[in-house]
Amino acid sequence: MKNQALGMIETYGYVGAIEAADVCVKAANVELVGCEFVRGGLVTIHIRGDVAAVKASIDAAEAAVVKVGNLISTHVIPRPSNDVEKILPNPDPEPKKEKQEVKEEVKKEEGSDSSFKTTEELKDIKTVDLRTLARELDDKYEASFPIDRSEIRSARKKELIEAILKFYERVK
Protein backbone atom coordinates (compact mmCIF):
# COMPACT_ATOMS: atom_id res chain seq x y z
CA MET A 1 0.00 0.00 0.00
CA LYS A 2 3.00 2.26 -0.37
CA ASN A 3 1.99 5.77 -1.54
CA GLN A 4 -1.61 4.67 -1.89
CA ALA A 5 -4.66 5.81 -0.02
CA LEU A 6 -7.42 3.68 1.44
CA GLY A 7 -10.98 4.90 1.03
CA MET A 8 -13.97 3.52 2.89
CA ILE A 9 -17.66 4.12 2.30
CA GLU A 10 -20.27 2.75 4.66
CA THR A 11 -23.88 2.59 3.56
CA TYR A 12 -27.11 1.20 4.87
CA GLY A 13 -28.24 -1.34 2.31
CA TYR A 14 -26.64 -3.23 -0.53
CA VAL A 15 -27.98 -1.08 -3.37
CA GLY A 16 -26.26 2.02 -2.01
CA ALA A 17 -23.02 0.07 -1.64
CA ILE A 18 -23.15 -1.14 -5.23
CA GLU A 19 -23.82 2.40 -6.42
CA ALA A 20 -20.88 3.66 -4.35
CA ALA A 21 -18.54 1.02 -5.75
CA ASP A 22 -19.65 1.73 -9.31
CA VAL A 23 -19.23 5.49 -9.00
CA CYS A 24 -15.84 5.14 -7.28
CA VAL A 25 -14.39 2.96 -9.99
CA LYS A 26 -15.79 5.14 -12.78
CA ALA A 27 -14.85 8.50 -11.23
CA ALA A 28 -11.11 7.95 -10.85
CA ASN A 29 -8.33 5.43 -11.31
CA VAL A 30 -8.96 3.40 -8.16
CA GLU A 31 -9.13 -0.29 -7.35
CA LEU A 32 -12.04 -1.89 -5.54
CA VAL A 33 -10.51 -3.86 -2.67
CA GLY A 34 -13.63 -5.42 -1.29
CA CYS A 35 -17.15 -5.25 0.01
CA GLU A 36 -17.72 -6.14 3.64
CA PHE A 37 -21.13 -6.93 5.07
CA VAL A 38 -21.35 -5.70 8.64
CA ARG A 39 -24.42 -6.34 10.79
CA GLY A 40 -27.86 -4.80 10.50
CA GLY A 41 -27.72 -3.97 6.82
CA LEU A 42 -24.48 -2.00 6.97
CA VAL A 43 -22.15 -2.53 4.03
CA THR A 44 -18.62 -1.14 3.76
CA ILE A 45 -16.80 -0.65 0.47
CA HIS A 46 -12.98 -0.44 0.48
CA ILE A 47 -11.10 1.19 -2.40
CA ARG A 48 -7.43 1.87 -3.00
CA GLY A 49 -5.42 4.13 -5.27
CA ASP A 50 -3.53 7.42 -5.39
CA VAL A 51 -4.49 9.88 -2.67
CA ALA A 52 -6.11 12.42 -5.01
CA ALA A 53 -7.93 9.73 -6.98
CA VAL A 54 -9.33 8.11 -3.85
CA LYS A 55 -10.51 11.45 -2.44
CA ALA A 56 -12.18 12.35 -5.73
CA SER A 57 -13.89 8.98 -6.06
CA ILE A 58 -15.09 9.03 -2.44
CA ASP A 59 -16.58 12.51 -2.94
CA ALA A 60 -18.34 11.40 -6.12
CA ALA A 61 -19.67 8.25 -4.45
CA GLU A 62 -20.87 10.25 -1.47
CA ALA A 63 -22.99 12.44 -3.74
CA ALA A 64 -24.37 9.44 -5.64
CA VAL A 65 -25.25 7.32 -2.61
CA VAL A 66 -27.29 10.10 -1.01
CA LYS A 67 -29.62 9.94 -4.04
CA VAL A 68 -30.01 6.16 -4.00
CA GLY A 69 -29.63 4.97 -0.41
CA ASN A 70 -28.51 5.89 3.06
CA LEU A 71 -24.93 7.02 3.47
CA ILE A 72 -23.54 6.32 6.93
CA SER A 73 -19.96 7.56 6.66
CA THR A 74 -16.93 7.99 4.43
CA HIS A 75 -13.26 8.16 5.28
CA VAL A 76 -9.95 8.39 3.43
CA ILE A 77 -6.64 7.30 4.98
CA PRO A 78 -3.92 8.97 2.85
CA ARG A 79 -1.00 6.60 3.44
CA PRO A 80 -2.04 3.75 5.74
CA SER A 81 0.48 1.58 7.54
CA ASN A 82 1.39 -1.76 6.00
CA ASP A 83 -0.18 -3.45 9.02
CA VAL A 84 -3.59 -2.20 7.90
CA GLU A 85 -3.33 -4.54 4.88
CA LYS A 86 -3.66 -7.50 7.25
CA ILE A 87 -7.16 -6.57 8.37
CA LEU A 88 -8.59 -5.58 4.99
CA PRO A 89 -10.83 -8.05 3.20
CA ASN A 90 -8.72 -9.44 0.38
CA PRO A 91 -10.39 -12.40 -1.33
CA ASP A 92 -7.95 -15.01 -2.61
CA PRO A 93 -9.24 -16.57 -5.86
CA GLU A 94 -6.79 -19.51 -5.84
CA PRO A 95 -8.58 -21.69 -3.24
CA LYS A 96 -11.82 -21.42 -5.24
CA LYS A 97 -10.05 -22.81 -8.30
CA GLU A 98 -8.79 -25.77 -6.30
CA LYS A 99 -12.31 -26.56 -5.11
CA GLN A 100 -13.63 -26.43 -8.67
CA GLU A 101 -10.92 -28.79 -9.89
CA VAL A 102 -11.82 -31.30 -7.18
CA LYS A 103 -15.50 -31.17 -8.18
CA GLU A 104 -14.61 -31.73 -11.83
CA GLU A 105 -12.55 -34.80 -10.92
CA VAL A 106 -15.46 -36.23 -8.92
CA LYS A 107 -17.87 -35.65 -11.82
CA LYS A 108 -15.51 -37.42 -14.21
CA GLU A 109 -15.40 -40.43 -11.91
CA GLU A 110 -19.18 -40.47 -11.59
CA GLY A 111 -19.68 -40.26 -15.34
CA SER A 112 -17.57 -43.27 -16.22
CA ASP A 113 -19.38 -46.48 -17.08
CA SER A 114 -17.32 -48.71 -14.80
CA SER A 115 -18.02 -46.77 -11.61
CA PHE A 116 -21.73 -47.68 -11.29
CA LYS A 117 -22.47 -51.35 -11.70
CA THR A 118 -24.32 -52.34 -8.57
CA THR A 119 -27.42 -51.12 -6.83
CA GLU A 120 -25.47 -50.57 -3.60
CA GLU A 121 -23.09 -48.16 -5.30
CA LEU A 122 -25.98 -46.24 -6.79
CA LYS A 123 -27.82 -46.06 -3.45
CA ASP A 124 -24.83 -44.26 -1.91
CA ILE A 125 -25.12 -41.43 -4.44
CA LYS A 126 -27.34 -38.40 -3.84
CA THR A 127 -30.50 -38.13 -5.90
CA VAL A 128 -29.31 -34.87 -7.45
CA ASP A 129 -26.15 -36.58 -8.68
CA LEU A 130 -28.17 -39.51 -10.02
CA ARG A 131 -30.29 -37.06 -12.02
CA THR A 132 -27.13 -35.45 -13.40
CA LEU A 133 -25.78 -38.88 -14.36
CA ALA A 134 -29.08 -39.79 -16.03
CA ARG A 135 -28.98 -36.60 -18.12
CA GLU A 136 -25.34 -37.23 -19.05
CA LEU A 137 -26.12 -40.80 -20.12
CA ASP A 138 -29.09 -39.59 -22.14
CA ASP A 139 -26.87 -37.04 -23.92
CA LYS A 140 -23.80 -39.24 -24.31
CA TYR A 141 -25.27 -42.37 -25.85
CA GLU A 142 -27.58 -42.70 -28.81
CA ALA A 143 -29.61 -45.40 -27.08
CA SER A 144 -32.64 -43.87 -25.44
CA PHE A 145 -32.68 -43.57 -21.67
CA PRO A 146 -35.64 -45.36 -19.99
CA ILE A 147 -36.95 -42.12 -18.45
CA ASP A 148 -37.86 -39.12 -20.61
CA ARG A 149 -35.54 -36.16 -20.13
CA SER A 150 -38.42 -33.97 -18.91
CA GLU A 151 -39.30 -36.52 -16.22
CA ILE A 152 -35.76 -36.96 -14.86
CA ARG A 153 -36.02 -33.91 -12.61
CA SER A 154 -39.06 -35.29 -10.80
CA ALA A 155 -37.98 -38.94 -10.72
CA ARG A 156 -37.39 -40.53 -7.34
CA LYS A 157 -34.14 -42.15 -6.34
CA LYS A 158 -35.47 -45.69 -6.72
CA GLU A 159 -36.77 -44.94 -10.22
CA LEU A 160 -33.47 -43.37 -11.23
CA ILE A 161 -31.46 -46.36 -9.98
CA GLU A 162 -33.68 -48.80 -11.86
CA ALA A 163 -33.48 -46.73 -15.04
CA ILE A 164 -29.68 -46.42 -14.85
CA LEU A 165 -29.27 -50.17 -14.32
CA LYS A 166 -31.62 -50.92 -17.26
CA PHE A 167 -29.68 -48.47 -19.39
CA TYR A 168 -26.36 -50.15 -18.57
CA GLU A 169 -27.84 -53.56 -19.47
CA ARG A 170 -28.97 -52.20 -22.86
CA VAL A 171 -25.67 -50.54 -23.66
CA LYS A 172 -23.64 -53.67 -22.88
UniProtKB/TrEMBL annotation:
Domain BMC, chain residue ranges per copy: 5-89
Listed Basic and acidic residues bias regions: 93-111
Any single GO CC term annotated in Swiss-Prot or TrEMBL for this entry: bacterial microcompartment
Keyword hit for Zinc-finger: no
Protein location: Bacterial microcompartment
Region (Disordered): 82-118
Keywords, sorted A to Z: Bacterial microcompartment
InterPro entries to which the protein is assigned, alphabetical: BMC_dom, BMC_shell, CcmK-like_sf, CcmK/CsoS1_BMC
Name of one Pfam family that matches: BMC
Membership in a protein family: Belongs to the bacterial microcompartments protein family.
Listed name of the protein: BMC domain-containing protein
